[in-house]
Amino acid sequence: MSDNDHHDGSIEKDVKSKPLWRKSVDAVLWFAKDQWFLVGIIIVIIISSQVQVPPSQQATKQVVVSYLAVSIIFFVAGCTLDSKVLLDNYAKWKQHLFIQAQCFIMVSVLAFAVVSLAAMNSHFMEPWLLIGLVFNGCQPTAMASNVLFTRKSHGNVTLTVVEVTIGNLIGPFISPLLIKMYLASGAWYTEAIPMQSGGYGALYRRVFMQFGLSIYLPMLIGQIFRRFFPKVVHKVFTEWQVGKFASLAMLSLLWQTCDHAFGTNAFSSIKASNMVFIVFISIVNYVLWLAISVGLSMLWLDRKETISVAMCAPMKTLALGVPLSFLLFTGITGLEESLIQIPMLLFQILSMALASITTIGLRRWVDAGEKKVQPDDDEADAQAQESVEKT
C-alpha cells in the first residue's frame, strides 16, 4: 500500500469516527461559510428593524448608497471581465431575446394570473398590494445580485452582466407599458387609482441618470483599468480578493431598502393575513419562475448559460420599481406608495435568500457537467497544458 493510500484511508477513518454532534457542527459551520451572504441578509434585516436612519436623512442615504454600492459592484465586474468575451456575449442576440422575453413577458403574465386569482375575493387583499404585485412582475431583472450569484454558481458571469445592462436599459420603456396594460383590465382593485395625466419624462431622466452613472460608467472605467493596468488588477482582485467588497456593497443596498421600509412604518399598516400571503406567493412565484426558465434553457443552452438565465429571469430590481411607484401615478398618498413597494421589497429579500441557497446545487451541477466533458487521454492533457502555458 502506498503512502497516499494509507493517508487517504486514515482521513476516511477519522471522518467516520467523528461523533454525531461534531458532524452536525461541521455541517453548520460549512453552511455558514458557504452561505455567508444569506447570514448577512438576516443580520441586515435585524439591524434595520431595530435602528433606522432619521427621516430627514433618508433621501440622502438612498442616493448615496444606491449610487456608491452599485458602482462598486459594476466597477469590479469591469475589472474582472475580459473585454473580448464581453463583446462576444453582447453579440448573442438569441440569448438576449430568450432571457428578456422570459423576464418581461413570461414572468409578468404569471404574476398577473396570480393577482387575478387573489382578486377574486375583493375583501381579502388591499388593492394597492395587488397593484404592487403587478408592479413586481413587470420589472427588469435585478442588477447586482445576479452577478454575484452567477459567479457563486460558476455560471457565465459575462452573459449575466450583459443581460443586466440590456434589461435595465429597456426596462424604463417596457415596464410602464406592461403595468398600464395589466391595470387596464378593469378589475375592482384598479378603481383605487386616481385619474392620471402626463408623460414619463421625469422617470426616464432619473432612471437613466442612475443607470448611466452607477452601471455603465463604472464598468467602462473598470475595463480601462483592466486594459492599461493588468498586473495591478490581477494582484488586487485575484491575490488580495478585493472583489469580495462587491458582496458587501450588495448587502448595503438591501440595508438601505429595508431601513426605508421600517423607517416609514410600512409593514405595520398591513394586515397579518395579507403579509403572510405576500410572503407565501413571493416564494411560490420565485420557485415557479426559476423552474420554468431553467427547464426551457436546458433544451438548448449549456449549463453555464443556463445559470445566467436562472439568475436573470426570475429576479427583479427595486431600482426601477421604487421610482415607478411614485412617478407612474399622481395624486396618491405616501402610504399608498409604500403599499406598492412592499411586495417588491419582500420579493427581493426572499428571492435573494432563495437564490443564495440554490447556488449550492447549481454550482455542483455545473462542475459535474464540466468533468464529463474533460478528456482523459494523455494527448488531450498535453494540449490543455500547452493552452494554459500560452495563456
Automatic annotation (TrEMBL):
Q: Keyword Transmembrane helix: yes or no?
A: yes
Ribosomal protein listed as a keyword: no
Biased region (Low complexity) positions are 382-391
Which sequence ranges are marked TM in the entry? 36-53, 65-87, 99-122, 128-149, 161-183, 203-225, 237-255, 275-301, 313-334, 340-362
Which UniProt keywords are present, listed alphabetically?
Membrane, Transmembrane, Transmembrane helix
What PANTHER family does its record include? SODIUM_BILE ACID COTRANSPORTER 7, SOLUTE CARRIER FAMILY 10 MEMBER 7
Q: What is this protein called?
A: Sodium bile acid symporter family protein
